[in-house]
Amino acid sequence: MEKVLFAVLTLVYLEISTSVVSAPICSYGQAGCHVPSLADLFERVIQQSSRMHSVSSDLHSEFEQYFFPSQNLIGKRKCHTYDILTPEDKENAQRLGREQLTEVIVRLLQAWEHVQDQNQDFNLYSSNKALEISDILHELKDGVTIITEKMKLLGVLSNTVGYNSPESLVPSSTFYTQGDLDSMDHHDLLYCFRRDSNKAKNYLRILKCTTLPEPDC
């Protein structure tokens, strides 16, 4: 049953992710069709995370230039993900191990997806880029979920990895309150998203290397 569910989720994810990463897709039951390998899935989410960080960096820069063109901003910069312990460099990320690193990635994406859902005015400025970020974020989280399930089936991760109770998302739901965001809050929100999207991108690369070692790792 788990394998059937995984196959269905994988096909759905591959269908919706073609808007971000182009790749040949085959339908369930098609002659010659094969289930994507773990390496294929990693490649997709890494490309998506790189795109998300690139767009978030552009959006942050555009926001600063438009609203604060001549100021050296500091702001609060206490991100709503402050309670998620994240390694600061590659060496520390590698020391975490696959399960802990996967948990960190999942928690970061869940926290930002929750903020995205709770604060629609996150899309207020540079709407095309903001909407693109929203789409990539949801697809990236789905992709990481697929990878997590695949790794569980392969016995690489325990079955408890990847689930976070709603209570664990409380900080993200209260740190930014819908309707109360001023320009500085928006700036800090975009700053934090740019920072965390870079972390997610780097952690996914490290997770791939620790799971599927390659010469370029």
UniProtKB/TrEMBL annotation:
Coiled coil: none
Annotated GO biological process: positive regulation of receptor signaling pathway via JAK-STAT; response to nutrient levels
PROSITE patterns membership: SOMATOTROPIN_1 (PS00266), SOMATOTROPIN_2 (PS00338)
Subcellular location: Secreted
CC per GO annotation: extracellular space
Main location: secreted
PANTHER family: PROLACTIN LIKE, SOMATOTROPIN,PROLACTIN
Protein name stated in the entry: Prolactin
Natural source organism: Dissostichus eleginoides
